[in-house]
Specification:
eight-stranded mixed beta sheet; alpha+beta; TATA-Binding Protein; single chain
Length: about 260
């Protein structure tokens, strides 16, 4: 029988200690490395401290209740939640992933946690991708205007603000890129490594990270080029001011 697994990114991160205590009052919970595992009679949910929750076999009402509880402990909640959904089935001879369906040999907490790490990373990456796309759309008018008119549509102050905004976005993403490395959990359970990597490979986590890094570099190069051009214009202006002042002094000299 097929069921669905859904991953939700609702915040930059969670207050894991407070959340663990709150969930312990009404659920059977276990802390496994950086994840809180919620065991509801063989139906599992995994909550990762970087703002992602993965739910296996929950219906919509159950999902909503748990996500609402988790969101109460969100740090920097997102304006819009990011989610991913796949199907899964238990009882396969071996683990496989195809056509958005995960086949697992058994209903194992650790096995599902290994897969959940990949799902959670992909969903967190989707949040980064959304944020980056918004930044691209906010700056795409710059090269378009430059190509059409040959003029830079920003003054020095606005360019500085755009560069600062880009730096904040890039640093926020790059500082959290460690979340997208192979989790410590997998190093401690090497027998589950194939479960994690099969799903991460299917969701193209590594190529998406590389593509996002290249996009960030292109935007940064654009803004640096604009900043250099504005600095050149400013230097030219200063040179003309100096020339005018010298000419003015020469004129005064001859009229004295």
């Amino acid at each position: 029988m097929e069921k669905r697994v859904r991953a939700f990114c609702t915040a930059e991160k969670y207050d894991s200690d407070e959340l663990y205590g709150a969930l312990s009052n009404n659920h059977k919970v276990t802390l496994i490395k950086d994840a809180i595992a919620v065991d509801r009679d063989g139906t599992y949910a995994f909550i990762f401290n970087y703002g992602v929750t993965v739910l296996w076999g929950y219906d919509y009402e159950e999902e909503k209740r748990l996500i609402d509880t988790v969101s109460d402990y969100a740090i920097k909640p997102l304006a819009e939640r990011v989610s991913e959904e796949m199907r899964y089935a238990i009882g396969a001879a071996e683990m496989s992933v195809r056509h958005d369906k995960i086949d697992l040999p058994e209903n194992s907490l650790l096995m599902m946690l290994a897969v959940s790490h990949a799902l959670a990373q992909s969903t967190k990456l989707a949040q980064f991708e959304t944020s980056l796309q918004e930044m691209i759309e906010a700056t795409e008018y710059i090269p378009q205007t430059l190509a059409k008119t040959g003029l830079i549509p920003l003054n020095r102050r606005k360019i500085a603000k755009e560069r600062g905004r880009l730096y904040l976005e890039k640093s926020g993403i790059m500082l959290q890129f460690g979340l997208l490395d192979t989790p410590e959990f997998i190093w401690e359970y090497p027998e589950l490594e194939s479960y994690y990597h099969n799903v991460a490979r299917y969701l193209e986590v590594a190529p998406r990270i590389e593509a996002m890094g290249k996009k960030l570099e292109i935007i940064q190069e654009l803004l640096e080029m604009l900043a250099d051009e504005q600095n050149h214009k400013h230097s030219s202006l200063l040179e003309w001011i100096i020339i005018v002042l010298i000419a003015f002094e020469i004129v005064l000299f001859f009229f004295d």
